[in-house]
């Protein structure tokens, strides 16, 4: 894990030099720029970059949104390690004896400009593993008043993987993703395991068959750098090993099939139809009641295809 929760209590060096890797797609030129800034306790790398952008050089391009380690959009290489800029304290990466912070774009994602990388291929891989619960009963899915119960042990099996924010740091650290662009990568494979392990999901067989290929878990070298850099303490390397083990058992007809839990209606509860909020009633030209009656946007056959 690259996140030090106590770093915010430490005071960073008063002045820090930021070395920022720049890239201009129009000229194809790459270079480094240096900026010296004054810091304060609690300042993150993202705070510092925004200060540089505001006060010294507004041309630096980077991506961020939530500024609280949730959206996963501010990943970059900080002092050689993939990290979230908003979750990295200056005090973690700069010292009085070495008050220098280097910042580069994430590896294994194409660079658009400066620190901004293109996640299109990454999200295509994510999408390709169908990262959602698949149930075959449409009514059960769409009525919205049923519950899928699971035991605390079953929840424990997948809880860690539900913490993934798709920040792509693991993918950036992966040596296989660096050399084989077809490799699904740690994030997508962790999602496959998350849904195979989910007792509510009914497509575990299709998922195992679909992922049983070269670009799936078999290409992993188990460097485990993915797990080492994850800011959410997800362990994609372990998920890949669990997936491999499940695949071997599945091929031998020994994978213990979990029976997907039936959805149940909470006892004694007939779900009252929620009235639409007043502001929704006033949308001009939109018949929300009619929209509610429309079939689901994604038919279940498509989810299973
Ligand atoms: S597994 Fe961790 S590092 Fe990888 S995308 Fe999810 S949160 Fe980011
Ligand atoms: S800005 Fe959202 S995770 Fe950093």
Give a structural overview.
- Helix 8 (185-196) crosses helix 11.
- This protein starts with 14 loop residues before the first strand and ends with a helix.
- It contains 14 helices and nine strands.
- The protein has helices spanning 45-55, 90-93, 120-128, 138-143, 152-162, 169-173, 175-179, 185-196, 204-211, 225-229, 236-251, 278-281, 288-293, 300-304, and strands at residues 15-24, 29-38, 75-78, 81-84, 100-104, 111-113, 116-117, 147-148, 263-264.
- The protein is α+β, with helices and mostly antiparallel strands and 305 residues long.
- It has two domains: 7-117, Ubiquitin-like (UB roll) (Roll); 120-251, Fumarate Reductase Iron-sulfur Protein, Chain B, domain 2 (Orthogonal Bundle).
- The site of FE2/S2 (inorganic) cluster has 12 residues, from loops.
By CATH reckoning, the class of the largest domain would read Mainly Alpha
Structural class: alpha+beta
Strand content: 5-15%
List the total number of helices.
Answer: 14
Bound heterogens, unique: iron/sulfur cluster, FE2/S2 (inorganic) cluster
User: What composes the largest sheet?
Assistant: 5 strands, mixed
**Total domain modules:** 2
Query: Which CATH architecture of the largest domain?
Result: Orthogonal Bundle
User: Globular, elongated, flat, extended or rod-shaped: what is the shape?
Assistant: globular
Q: Span from first to last CA?
A: 37 Å
CATH third-level topology of the largest domain: Fumarate Reductase Iron-sulfur Protein, Chain B, domain 2
Please, what is the average pLDDT?
A: 90
Q: Percent helix among the residues?
A: 25-40%
């Amino acid at each position: 894990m690259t996140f030090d929760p106590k770093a915010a209590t430490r005071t960073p060096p008063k002045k820090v030099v930021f070395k920022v890797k720049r890239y201009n797609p129009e000229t194809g030129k790459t270079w480094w720029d240096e900026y010296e800034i004054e810091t304060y306790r609690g300042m993150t790398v993202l705070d510092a970059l925004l200060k540089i952008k505001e006060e010294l050089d507004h041309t630096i391009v980077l991506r961020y949104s939530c500024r609280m380690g949730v959206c996963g959009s501010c990943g970059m290489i900080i002092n050689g390690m993939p990290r979230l800029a908003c979750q990295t304290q200056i005090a973690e990466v700069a010292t009085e004896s070495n008050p220098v912070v280097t910042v580069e774009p994430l590896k294994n994602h194409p660079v658009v400009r400066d620190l901004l990388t293109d996640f299109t291929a990454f999200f295509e891989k994510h999408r390709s593993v169908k990262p959602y619960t698949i149930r075959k009963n449409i009514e059960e899915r769409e009525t919205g008043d049923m519950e899928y119960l699971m035991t605390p042990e079953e929840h424990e099996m997948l809880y860690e993987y539900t913490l993934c924010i798709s920040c792509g740091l693991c993918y950036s650290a992966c040596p296989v993703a660096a050399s084989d662009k077809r490799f699904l990568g740690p994030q997508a494979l962790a999602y496959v395991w998350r849904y195979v392990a989910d007792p509510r999901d009914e497509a575990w067989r299709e998922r195992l068959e679909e992922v049983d290929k070269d670009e799936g878990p078999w290409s992993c070298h188990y460097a485990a750098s993915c797990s080492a850099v994850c800011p959410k303490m997800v362990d994609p390397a372990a998920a890949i090993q669990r997936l491999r083990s499940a695949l071997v058992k599945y091929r031998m007809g020994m994978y213990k099939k979990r029976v997907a839990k039936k959805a149940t209606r909470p006892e004694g509860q007939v779900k009252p139809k929620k009235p639409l909020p007043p502001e929704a009633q006033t949308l001009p030209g939109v018949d929300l009641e009619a929209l509610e009656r429309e079939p689901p946007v994604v038919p279940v056959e498509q989810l299973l295809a």
